[in-house]
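Tutorial, part two.
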Amino acid sequence: MMNDERLEIPSLLNLIDDIQRLGLSDQFGNDIKSSLNKLTCNIDVSKLDLRVTALLFRLLRQNGIWISQDEFERFKDEDGNFMELLGNDVEGMLNLYEASHFALEGEGLLDEAKTFAMKHLHDQIRTNEKGSSTNHVMETLELPLQYRSPWVEARRFMDTYLKDENNPSAKDTQAVLELTKLNFNMVQSMHRNELQEMSKWWKGTELASKLNFSRDRLTEAVFFSVSMAHKPELSECRKALTKAAQFLTLIDDIYDIYGQLDELEAFTSAVERWDINAIDELPEYMQLAFLALYNTVNELGYEILKEKGRNCIPFLRKSWENLCKAFLVEAKWYYKGHTPTYEEYLNNGWVSSSGPLLLTHAYLLASPSITTEGLDCLFNNHDLLRLPSIIFRLANDLATSEAELERGETTNAISSYAKEAGVSLEDAREHMKKLIDESWKGLNRIRALNSNETTAFSDDFVEIAINLARTVQCIYQRGDGFGSPDLIEKQEIDSQKVERLKSQVKKMMNDERLEMPALLNLIDDIQRLGLSDQFGNDIKTSLNKLACNIDISKLDLRATALLFRLLRQNDIWISQGKADEFERFKDKDGNFTESLRNDVEGMLNLYEASHFALEGEYLLDEAKTFAMKHLHDLIRTNEKGFMANHVMETLELPLQYRSPWVEARRFMDTYLQGKNNPSAKDTQAVLELAKLNFNMVQSMHRNELQEMSKWWKGTGLASKLTFSRDRLPEAVFFTISVAHKPESCKCRKALTKVVKFIALIDDIYDVYGHLDELEAFTSAIERWDINTIDGLPEYMKLAFLALYNTVNELGYEILKEKGRNCIPFLRKSWENMCKAFLVEARWYYKGHTPTYEEYLNNGWVSSSGPLLLTHSYLLASPSITTEGLDCLFNNHDLLRLPSIIFRLANDLATSEAELERRETSNAILSYAKEAGVSLEDAREHMKKLIDESWKGLNRIRASNSNETTAFSDEFVEIALNFARTIQCTYLRGDGFGSPDLIKKQVLSLVLEPVQ
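Running the prediction step on this input gives:
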């Protein structure tokens, strides 16, 4: 058929194209070259139309026969642009687009051709109905032939070969298709046998079972090696590449997921030294990985030496060393929180892509002979290694989702370039695509040179290198098809790593050699980093042992205060009075010894400990005053630095007033900065565990935000009642701060809904509703009758019915889960809040200024604290008891005290200007007026009331730990966290009502993973 002289040029070109796309290039290589050379000698290319010219151009360059880009000049108009009328020839546009991808550097005419063809092909998609032609256009635009792995394309093309009615050679080339199927099946049989052999090899290593944190990607590894080097004669090369790909995945997971920095440094050193004795310095799991790699590479080196007479182990080893060093660089960036420059990232990234390693192995195995010139090219990172590896790195990065990029979950060429160039992520993506195109031009140049002169590389190796780039483009075309484990698998890997790190931390805690101050600091670190749940029993055991076995009277102030706080914080009673723990630090006049002020750490610990006081513990009040005075002196007399900042942060908000989960996120960023942190060098495992734990829990929180966003949008309240604040992220932040634990998921989601309705109803009473409407709404809530909505204005009907349905659904869930009908308690909490809102509305409309007592008695209810805590009790308690419900009904201190803190902290957030304008009722104003004191003195009084409320909460917590009460530990902790979250929210103004003040915390707590 190919030699049939009656065959017209277009038919011959289509036949050659079919043969090559169907994977038969090897069988007809010489015939194809002969036919193409004959064509170039015997025809006048200038007389061919665009469709044929472009196809001929591509086939010539594809087969190493030179043809100039100038052949396309004649398709331009007098203005130097491609003639618009050509855009109507879809086949011509497809051929031109395909041809443009064989451009070399500097061939601007082919760039113009690509742009022109791409525009008209996109127009074709927009203006035509879907069909085989449109699908063909979309497939071509998505991945042109030059970017496709030939063997993968052969399998795909077989399925579509006879479907295209416009294929001019389809009817006459049944023999071609039949030969293709036979050839493919024969080669595939060999590939299948190799898969079985590799499966047996991998199973024999036992790495999958011994190191089960790593992804098992053998099938994908075989696909990768087949796509790179599918020819039958390259069997040994494929098997070696499969083994290399398996070890790449394993080692990537060690560096990226499982290993700690000191372990990674040791592993990199072992690979660099390539010394069997180095394994003694590695942890057990790394010993297995290193020895398996060591033996496999050495065996491969032996086979190459046996077959080709060259000792190539130094080159193989060097490729693994380079890869591990590049992985280590990225690990150090992660551990140090370093964001590399774009150049820094890319210079390391093309090596860490693993491209150079794979191509080094491919050269040594696929080349007919190994030359000194070839080895020099490998050593000096020839473009044939560098360019496919750049494509590898950039294609991988382009597979990163927009959501991952916006969250900044990982270092990436796109985000690095966007940041440096000051462009959008979309523009950065386009820049990466252009870099890939430029890299392809370089590969086209190498291929053209290799076809026309003697070079260091064989044709087989050049084709393998180009196929690496093609395989990568195929794999990452629609996401990371090879590297990323799915969500469940990643969670499993993370869980395994968590267990290993927990074991290490427990070992540290139980180390008999650890001195008491170091142990206390370690326990403090663990708790501040959000790991209390993982080590609760271990911490209590260690603290109880300390309390029993040490003579506290011999400890200095620093250790005494820290021990005191940790014991009370963990519900182990230690009396500041009976045991006189702090009395010994006083002088003969009964004052704290002034010399103690020089111990800044001691002052900080004393100040923190004082916030765990109960009512009547005056010694701790004295301790607080003493410590506070000297810490303020320190700030005034010292330059700013880490310690000065630490002091200011502590004075602003002591640990007892901080939400544990918010503090965990903050503390991770500063954990290793303190030069005096005695445990910093030895507790990398603690920090790594904290990051893993935080990110795993945060992932759940992020999903909840998405779910709540969908719910809120579904209610239609934001669009229907536009007067109300839309503060969903802040609501999610609030509930996470109150109840962050994974098992509190249902509680969080319910509380988020509650907070959203509180904000809406608050705006109705405070901003939008008239007094008569508010009275009607309050009455409707009190009666809790669906028939009452007819008496409400339209906007209130929507609000009432949405609330009514949500609360009743919540009541149903509680009844289903816990066997109690709690709707009366839920309804009553909404009634109480709305009545309190109505009282304040009446004050406003009547111009009434309430007394201080009148204001506070109503204000702690209108704070919404009792409502939120009622819902929390019903949702978070393991069981709902009659005693517990009675406590709710009678406003137990565990509801009242956090709500008083809520009201007073909110009022303290009111600015001086607002207070002086007397725009609203406020505890500060009421107290200042009645007591005849300044606004500043009134503020100080409110702060003292907050401190007294905290003493009451400390008392409840102490009682709950030592006797059976109406409330579970979970609910007590939520109530305390409620008060803490309020202090955090209103620390520098109304953080909920003014969202900018809390935006950063929302981002760090919910959206941005810890790096």
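Confidence is low (pLDDT under 50) at residues 483-488, 675-681. In part three we will examine how such features are distributed along the chain.
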